[in-house]
Amino acid sequence: MSGHSTSEHAKSPLTTYFAVWGALLFGTWLTYQASLLDLGPFNAAVALIIATTKALLVALFFMHLKGASEKLLKLVVASTIFFLIILLALSMFDYGTRTFS
Amino acid sequence: MAAPTTHAHNPALLHHFATEEQQRNSASFGMWIFLATEVMFFGGLFCAYLIYRRWYFGDFGAASTSINAKLGGANTAVLICSSLTVVLAIWAAQTSRRALMIGMLILTMLFGLTFLGIKGIEYNDKFEEHHVPGASFSFEHVAIPSHPDQYANPQHAQIFFALYFIMTGLHALHMVVGLGIFSWLLWAAWKGRFTPQYHTPLEIGGLYWHFVDIVWIYLFPLLYLIDRHK
Amino acid sequence: MATAGTPNVERENYLNKHYGVGSWLLTTDHKRIALLYLLSITFFFFIGGFFALLIRLELLTPASDLVQADTYNKLFTQHGQVMVFFFLIPSIPAVLGNFLIPLMVGAKDLAFPRINLLSWYLYIIGGLMMIHCMLTGGVDSGWTFYVPLSTSYLNTKVVEAGLAIFVAGFSSILTGLNFIVTIHRMRAPGMTWMRLPLFVWAHYATSIIQILGTPVIAITLVLVVAERSLHLGIFDPKLGGDPLLFQHLFWFYSHPAVYIMILPSMGVVTEIIACFSRKRIFGYSFVAMSSIAIAVFGFLVWAHHMFVAGISVYAALIFSLLSYAVAVPSAVKVFNWTATLYKGSIHYDAPMLYAFGFLGLFTIGGLTGLFLSALGVDMHVHDTYFVIAHFHYIMVGGALMGYLGGMHFWWPKISGKLYPEGWARLAALIVFIGFNLTFFPQFILGYLGMPRRYADYSHMPEFQILNVFSTAGATVLGVGYLLPMIYFLWSMRYGKPAPDNPWQAAGLEWQTQSPPTTFNFEEEPVVTWEAYNYEEIEKGHKEVPQVVG
Asked: N or C, which end of chain A has less CB nearby within 10 Å?
């Protein structure tokens, strides 16, 4: 008997794994295609949104974050991302508001 | 989940833990925290990248166009496949499928080696084109994609390549470490150390591998696809 | 260590269970690792203190007559690097945290004992690299490694120093990782979060900072080494780089680093104040949450080190505001400690003297931090002795006093011996007097305009008298620090054997024998009482029921 708490759905996790794999490959193709379009300033945003979706898929399903019994792991991930964003955002705020060249 | 009432514990249970569950949860939690440190480690590089991309968007675009997005995309697919084989290896351990587990571990490592091989080809291309920062760096007369009448500033392009090599190089280094970890996991799997009740090293090794995949998921669009539209 | 003069048969404990160098260098016992750290950080404290002594000797006279300016630059750089990275950051967590956290939560060891040993070895490797660096030329960039000076213009061992700190940083990360997992996963039954000693909360908050902040300085040092070796242009303005990028990345860690240095000390002070007032801590949950708040807010203020460096004025405003906010949780702690003292039954043992010293000196240091957070004031006092006085009040008057107080408080538990109380009180007094004599004049010097990092101040000879006071104070301070080293060592051989709970203190660590056995508790303790249950202890004048045989 498996004493491990993966996402214990009634169906096998295999379906989920292959579905995520397919989604990740699709997302990669999509990223590449989107970069060939001229979306102006939104090119970067689209790329990051797709990348973040892919990262979330890996984290939630491959790294079993979704099925984690405690909220603790999600808190660790969320906090880390929060502080990374602080680093990026507050630095960019400095650079973005400098009025001298 | 109740603690086991027998004391016939797995020899892998370390003395300072009360139960196997405590040990497994601790190991997993410890790896997640280590991954948090890795996020911040790479995060500093992403910060530097973002700032210079904003300052020198045109020059970065020119530099980005000169690296091979097809190879980068292929590498992304390779890593995605390797993450799949990792979860399949763990599933195999959970369901006592020893041959599949070993096969998936080997496949994971092959994907990892493929990734490094493709990386090697890319690095070699950059070396031949004199795009490696340093004394022989050269980036003359390369048009900026969004303003084709202007040439990119070589110094700013050098910053792009510096970040490209440092970020992908650091990532590749993590890949090499990952291969080392998986070699050990393969050996341990071969030795029959993993059972449905105990395969914690596989799980935490898998967490590490997935993290390395996630870093690449971000590196690919940010480095390879800056200003690709014509 | 054998105790020659003890009449009683010595009980088996973690010190005498195994003998030999191998049993120490390959130990996974958190208590032995704590002692390994104790020896190492004391060694580095001497080195950092030696540099401080030379700095103060140089500043006795306005002219740069003791050492040349280049040498002086190495002195203050290495004083800072050694003291910050090889003394203060490890000190309380690696010594007292390592020793006490498993005991306080009721565990047999930390979650990852081998990683604990690894962290000590990484510290030693980093330390040896730093010593080698200092012996083969040293580094003179300032402990802050500012670019492009450190990357493009210096001829000194910047790379080696940077790599040494890189390695030591991983020691810090692993310690933090171990603490977080231990506190989450290894608490004994009944030891809920809100029953934990606040020392544990403080270390939990510290560990969060270590985990999230240290990797950023690690990558920054990698970039410095790369830039210096390959001239990439990442930080060099001549090649299109921005020196401020370095400062953003550096201070993103180095500001939270100061909270790594002070939070554990606050945890120590909380334990001491409760014990020597014989009262529970006033506002337990506020103190616990304020530790977390300090850790979180501490990450939001880094650019207050860069107000005059060239950041945008809008960024400066935001960071100034946030810097005011970060003072609030610290103030909450000061109020709670004060309220704990009120109507307490105060005992003036040496640990308590250090705690009182901490209260006053940390408050002064913290308030002067608010001065520095004000943009207008900072324009004038940035890079002056005002800043130096500010951070020494917190680091030395705060963190180091807390460390010494904690060493005295837990010495009977760690060594099984009592230190001589009379000498300890005298030493505490000497430290307090010496400290104020050293650093208070520096506030005045800074306000009057004496710049930091100058060997020669002969264009402002009127500053000499205050510098002389400061150097005199440093000498007194040095004596104050030497005394505990002498009498702690003395006590290991000649001190009275300590009872298991000499202070009648609350906390699981006091329920073990002094010194504890290797596995801490014979049986897993089951906690049914709240933290700081001094009322129960006082009422019965007896200890809380023993949980170990």
From this structure: C
Contact B43/A84, CB-based, under 8 Å?
yes
C492, burial (CB in 10 Å: exposed 0-12, middle 13-18, buried 19+) = middle
B145, two tokens: 């994609």
Domain carrying residue C152: 21-540
Look up the CATH number of the domain holding residue C272: 1.20.210.10
Q: Which of C308, C328, C393, C397 is nearest to C356 (CA)?
A: C397
How far apart, in whole angstroms, are the C-alpha atoms of residue C403 and residue C431?
Answer: 13
Residue C149, CA distances (Å) to C117, C137, C230, C236 in order: 36, 17, 15, 9
What is the distance, to the nearest Å, from the Cα of residue C187 to the centroid of all Cα atoms in its chain?
25
> Chain-centre distance of CA A38, in angstroms?
24
Tokens standing for residue C495: 């001190």
* Amino acid identity for residue C45 in this structure: F
Q: C190: phi > 0 → left, psi -120 to 50 → alpha, else beta; which?
A: left
Task: Mutation target for C interface from A83, A86, A98, A100: give the one with most C CBs within 10 A.
Answer: A83
Q: Cα–chain-centroid distance for residue A44?
A: 15
The pTM score is: 0.94
Inter-CA distances, A72 with B26, C101, C184, C204, Å: 12, 21, 9, 14
Task: Encode pLDDT of C93-102 as tens digits.
Answer: 999 999 999 9
Q: Is residue C8 part of a domain?
A: no
The CATH classification number of B42-224 equals: 1.20.120.80
Ranges of each domain in chain A: 8-67, 69-101
Collapse the DSSP code of C39 into the 3-class scheme (helix H, G, I; strand E, B; otherwise coil) and give the result.
helix
In a domain, C364, yes or no: yes
C301 versus B6: the higher-pLDDT residue is C301
Both tokens of A65, joined, read: 């974050």
Sequence letter at residue C509: E
Q: What's the pLDDT score for residue C64?
A: 92
- Residue A4, pLDDT > 70, answer no
Name the amino acid, one letter, at B125. D
Which of C184, C312, C318 is closest, CB to CB, to A99? C312
- CB contact under 8 Å between C314 and A83, yes or no, is no
C547 domain residue, yes or no? no
Closest by Cα among B43, B65, B17, B57 to B198: B17
CB B39 within 8 A of CB C219: no
* Polymer length in residues for chain C: 549
